[in-house]
Structures are given as structure tokens and as C-alpha cells.
Amino acid sequence: MLRDIGYGRPYNSTVELINSEVSDDIAYYLSNSEQTASAIELDVLVNDQGVERAGGILIQVLPKAHRDEELSKLVYAQAGRLKDFSKLLGQGLPMAEIMTLLLGDLGLEILPETVPLRFFCPCTRDRLMGAMRMFGTDELQDMIEKDKGAEATCDICGEVYNIQADELAALIQRMDEEAIAARS
What we know:
The protein has helices spanning about 20-30, 70-80, 85-90, 95-105, 125-130, 135-145, 165-184; strands at about 1-5, 10, 40-45, 50-60, 150-155, 160-165. The protein is an alpha+beta fold.
């Protein structure tokens, strides 16, 4: 699992797979790597044309609520009901209704809105240039002289950035100017 928490290098962790059930493996990862107890149920219904319906439920007690042992026990006891998820998904029920049927008696407010998922990588050329400052002017100058520039590949999306020697020289100049201004 690779996670970018917004600063430094992305965090990378690995746990072994416990079986071929994706939801079990993800729950195991979250429990062991993230130290977050989780209940997950995923299902895909397939027909002759391909995927008819797919859905999933992830239940986690938020960090501050973990202090309330009774709430945690109650939520995870209810998680056993998630095994009915496949049947309810197959009936074509909306997710809000499925959640109400599975967890509604907990007194939770289940919002009917859905949010489409999308992949997003926060990398940009500007962000990379900001990170290049960490090398310092001597190392940047060495990149100019030896490599005629620099190349960086994002660990998250795989985008390759080629930084030309003149861009590195301009970065060195800005860094030198900022150092002079800071001393003044």
C-alpha cells in the first residue's frame, strides 16, 4: 500500500495476504498496518454481459470514538450483518437503504448522498520543483554539470518529470536570492 500524506516521501507498507478474499485482505491490512479495526464487505454481481452491480461497505470507528469501548463493540458486532450485503446488493437496493437495513438500528444518520470515486494524484511540476530545493544548491549544480538536468518519477501515479538544466539553474538562483534576503 502506498500512501501520500502530503509531505516527504510517500509512506509504503506491506502485509501478507491472508486469503484470496479481497475484503478480508484489506481488513487485515488496515488492522495490521494502519492499526485501524475495520469491517469490510465487497461484492460484484456478474451477468452474461459483464458486471451488473458492484459495491462495498467499509466500517471503521473514528479515532476519538475508539476510546468508547461499548460503541466499538456495538459497531463491530453489527458488522457481522454485512454478510447480508450481497443479497441486498443483488436486489438492486440503493446503498443508503442497504446501510439502513444493515446498521439502521444503531441510531446512525445514514446520508443518502453518494460521492463518485476518482483517482487523484497531487503531484505537479511546481510541487516537484519545491521538493528539489531539499537537495541544496551544491547537489543541484552537480545535476546540471553531470546530468544536464534531472528526472523524477512520481511514486503514486508514475508521471515522469524532466527538469532541464536551465530550470535547475533558475532554482539555484532563486535559492541564493532567498538566502541573501534572509540574512538581511
